[in-house]
Amino acid sequence: MSNEFPLPDVGEGLTEADIVSWKVAAGDTVTVNQILVEIETAKSLVELPSPQAGLVDALLVEEGQTVEVGTPIIRFGGDGSSSGAASDGAAPGAAAGKTSGGAATKASGGAAEGGAAGADEDGGATLVGYGARAASSKRRPRRGATAPAPDAASSAPTQASAATAPAPTTAAQTVKSTASAAAPPEPATTSAGKPLAKPPVRRLAKDLGIDLGSIAPTGTRGEVTRDDVQAAAQRSGAAEEASTAVSADAGVASAGGGSTAELEERIPFKGVTKMMAKAMVDSAFTMPHVTEFLDVDVTATMDFVRRLKSTKFLGEDVKVSPLLLVAKAVTWAAARNPRINSCLEGDEIVVRKYVNLGIAAATPRGLIVPNIKNAQSMGLTELAQSIQGLTALARSGKTPPADQAGGTITITNVGVFGVDAGTPIINPGEAAILAFGQIRKRPWVVGDEIVPRDITTLSVSADHRVVDGEIISKFLADVGRGLEDPSLLLA
Q1: Which domain holds residue 227?
Q2: Is 464 labeled as catalytic in the residue annotation?
Q3: Given pLDDT bands bounded at 50, 70 and 90, which one contains residue 67?
Q4: Whether 68 contacts 15, CB under 8 Å
Q5: Are residues 344 and 245 in the same domain?
Q6: Start-to-end Cα distance in the chain
Q7: How far is it, in rounded angstroms, from Cα 113 to Cα 99?
Q8: What is the per-residue pLDDT across 230-252, written as a single tens digit (0 to 9) for each?
Q9: What percent of the chain has pLDDT over 90?
Q10: Cα gap 12→35, rounded to integer Å
Q11: Of 289, 319, 464, 474, which is the active-site residue?
């Protein structure tokens, strides 16, 4: 007896996943915990292990398909000795058709059932519905071909009928009759020669830019009705849209040397991208965002980063960047302003005494926000290692859902893209997010002199239901203070 394995819920209550690539094929022998397939959820790439040992009977879902949790995706052979297709004595072609969804099997089965009745004139089998019809054994004469001469018996009644038939209508009469039937009724006119229509209908035609004289009336007295005007407007609009589309396509084709379809790329809106889009919409339209900005002199921070790099103080393989100091400054400022590290749950504001620091990461699969658990208790070395490992795992696309859950506050580093500042959207379940802009030399007043300094712009968006302007301002000022004087972060 075969055993079907359904797509499991891999965590976080996800309801569907995409089949990325199969690691086995029909007929393969697998062991327990051998990787069967790689799937992509809305959160990460996940490898599914085999729940049993045995023979793969069939792959029930093709690569690239999106399937719901609980849908059977693979079938195992019951005894592990042979696949279902082999035990049934099926031909290799039938097994291949079964693997690809059964379409080939159904087609060949239909042809076999048709037998001789389903064969064409050459003796070949035909698909059901596409074979020669039994009742139509003669072909219709081709246009222009000479019809066979009738025999005498059949021609006699024809001649008699022709003798008693009325005289044929002349060509001119036929044309006149056809034209009369096809021509629309002429619109009735007023004494001033205008088409007959009620004032509201005239006003509607004027608003829509429709000429009443160009409309065929359907009113009982030959007047143009409201429905006539609206129908004419629809026809005019459709014609204009079609003309615009053709012109646009022609313009694109002439400019780029191809059609619009050839010059467009269509990306499936699913997986991480779709999940992030939903989260951002929910956040933007449920939280009243407020954003504040602060320019900060980070010259001391950059000097400190350079010293850490040159001395390898944090370790040979540890990557040191300004983001490390920003992360440390955020945890330090959150401890001084704990309300910023909170969230709203029902009728309660929950202030967290721990910091699960989210780091927004741009990956080939889209934007994800994994977080560092208990970042507030980490020193520079451990924090640097966590950031390095977190971002590397995120770019590989294999961040587990657990690493993306439970965040309390987030940093997004827009400076790496050469951007000075932005108004970031808060990650759902949190109250604030800080954007870290690019660091560049700018003229800055130091004492009474204007000197070049390393300057960055920090911007923080916060949920105004949970925190007010005072808390936001104090938090942002503390982050800036920590970056202006990194020694405060090490106290």
Answers
A1: 187-266
A2: yes
A3: confident
A4: yes
A5: no
A6: 68
A7: 22
A8: 888 888 766 665 555 555 555 55
A9: 40
A10: 21
A11: 464
In the block, residue with structure tokens 């056809």? 178
Q: Are residues 234 and 278 in the same domain?
A: no
Task: Note the pLDDT tens digit of each residue in 109-167.
Answer: 443 344 333 334 333 333 333 333 333 334 444 444 444 444 444 444 444 344 344 44
Q: Report the alpha-carbon distance of residue 329 to residue 480 in Å, rounded.
A: 8
Token pair of 278 as six digits: 């939903």
Name the phi and psi angles at 213, rounded to 5: -70, -15
Q: Pull the structure tokens for residue 51.
A: 């729940």
Q: SS3 of 414, please?
A: helix
Is pTM beyond 0.85 here?
no
Closest CA to 432 of 286, 280, 279, 290: 290
The CA distance from 239 to 233, in Å, is: 10
Contact at 8 Å (CB) between 461 and 477?
A: no
Name the more confident of 144 and 310.
310
Q: Three-state DSSP class for 296?
A: strand
Sign of the dihedral through C-alpha 477, 482, 488, 489 = positive
Coil, helix or strand for 403? helix
What HEC string does 83-148 produce?
CHHHHCCCCHHHHHHHHCCCHHHHHHHHHHHHHHHHECCCCCECCCCCCCCCCCCCCCCCCCCCCC
The first and second tokens of residue 35, run together, are 């990787």
Q: Return the C-alpha torsion angle 139, 140, 146, 152, nearest 10.
A: 80
What pLDDT shows up at residue 186? 55
Instruction: Judge if 345 and 473 occupy the same domain.
Output: yes
483 shares a domain with 361: yes
Mind giving me the DSSP string for 194-261? PBPB-HHHHHHHHHHT--GGGSPP-STTSPBPHHHHHHHHHHHHHHHHHHHHHHHHHHHHHHHSS-TG
d(CA 25, CA 8): 20
Q: Using only C-alpha atoms, what is the Rg of the chain?
A: 38
* Same domain membership, residue 418 and residue 275: yes
Residues 245 and 198 in one domain: yes
